[in-house]
Structure prediction request, 715 residues.
Amino acid sequence: MLMNLTSTHIRRLFARVAFGISLALVALAARPASATKKQDLDAVAGAYAQTAEPDTPLSFYPQQGKLWMESERQMPASLRAIGDDEFQTENNVRFRFEKLPAGWSVTRIAPDGGSITLMRVGDVEHHLFHQYERSEAMIPMRDGVRLHAVILMPTDMHEPLPILLTRTPYGVSGLTPAAFIASQPQLARDGYIRVEEDIRGRYGSEGRFRMMHPLADHSNPKATDESTDAYDTVAWLVKNLPGNNGRVGVMGISYPGFLTTMAGIDPNPAVKAISPQAPMIDVWRGDDFFHNGAFRQTYGYDYGIMLESSKENVVLDDYGKDASGQPVDGYKFFLERGSFAQDVAQSGVKQKLPTWQDFLNHPAYDEVWRARGVEYHLNSVAVPTLTVGGYYDQEDMWGPQEEYKRLEPHDTNHENFLVLGPWRHGSWSGTTRHIGALQYGAAIGEQYREQIEARFFAHYLKDQTGFTLEDTASFQTGSNTWKYYSHFPPPASRMTDFCLGADRELHEGSGCAPGDVAYVSDPANPVPYRHRPIQPTYGKGSQWYTWMVEDQRFVTGRSDVAAWRMPLNHDLTITGEVFADLFARTTGSDGDFVVKLIDQYPDDDPDPAMRGYQLMTNMEILRGRYRKSFDHPEAITPGKTTEFRWSLHDVDHVFRKGHTLMVEVQSSWFPLYDRNPQTFVPNIMTAPASAYQRATVTIVSDPKYPSRLLLPVMP
Prediction:
């Protein structure tokens, strides 16, 4: 739902990316004395980059007696000399040059002391920067409510230009020419009239905010929702902005991705292309707040406070301090509170947050949540649609995959496009070669933006050639190559059984050792979903962003995590949707089931950082009470072998020869998801402490009850 906090935080992130830095890094040890003098600027001129991130060079060059710098995402700026070898920006960032045996280096020193050293990698690189005039407007909606927008109008381009619109709940006041260039350099250079708008009830806009506003009855001309607000916004922009060509593209990531999808439902005729990126499509079935009925406790708690306790974002920096003054571990914080009702009661939040009340009063998939399900309205490809998603999206992985699937049967004009990559939430907007320890080998986000996104909008908004995507582009991990498919999943993939044997071995087909594998699930000691301590979702130093690529060895040895393995003597490629189909018994009357598909790297892997690494490729939870129906929960009969089947989502991955295919099953994933009491109660949100009981969970595997994973294997 949120890429990396507010729009301001997003733009700060991109500014850091432009410099190729990480403020978390500590200054390196002392270096040799510098040979640079203030008057010898030519000596240090060149492009500088980190070794690990060579795709974001920062260029320094002399101009009019001063040292200047720029990058792909950084407008040219002059530096002030503060020493023989040191220069400073207006915001007190320092750059220290040194002559090393390997060549010139520059150390960037942030005001807080964090630093990173870049090496000179080539000649100065200059970039195109358009000039933009910034203005603001209050745009009237059909019911009289006015929405606040910021407009960037190019002043050095004189042909009619299309409008590129983003609507957001995260604030638009930070949109400036520099911010546009920092966050979307390709589009900023291509030339668009850029508009960002605060949605109803947020920041500078009037009206009342409703979380993921349900679609209204569009036969009623007075009804309003995010679709009608987009329609009215576009109508005003086309009429009132001089020099536009009458075409509008809409794009956004996360919550703005949902808003982009809504702009494509009963769209304004001027909308000619949309790109919903990581759109939240259904927050109960698979996006932000629930997955298959299991409540995402930390996220629901943190995000509710952030978006509904004020008209502007309120970010939790910590969960309080312990007796020693250290931040409280989120695992301990939520474990001590118990149910979500206790979270609310002890939160200190005085007002009743609407979404918190929905969590408490509507735990099942009733009309409150179904009314917010965008998938039920995706009945036509009304405008060309480029949907983007990440295989490691910690917030909205399900949304883009579901949107594409819902639109695909209606794609009569071949205008439904999909891009998937091994990205975390929104990270395709950055320029990097890795996520956590997972190395891509190339800056695939930049490749996507240059070769697909920019060409998509240029084609449909400017009639330019070059957009050649037939249907789906997927960056396949393991092989680290882009794959292009006429449909996703590709027709060549075949669903193949991999059964879970009683001997803890995984077998292709049905030849597993019959028998049982059991473990004890204890709500008092749930399995953590990432390394502790667990920080608030968007708090300082949070590891939320990359938890899906964390090495799973930190929990594999637990007695309440069952594991199966299959060493590979050949490459195994799986492309498409993965399913879990478990037959299990439990001594409880309710329970959760978590399945993780893992690529275990060999101990002699060429990359030392990946030796023995257990990398999840697919993972998902199912709340047992919803195994038959999401809207009518049903208790599990204790001791009865019961089937639990659910999707682990799409993947495109090569398990290499010498690696081990691995499956883990567990019954808690805390505090990402609230604990299941493992006794059936009417509402887990209000479960009393006495309801939380240990349960023995038994995974059954025999010809009658073949517990298995179904993998889409490519020939």
Notes: DSSP finds 13 helices and 33 strands in the chain.
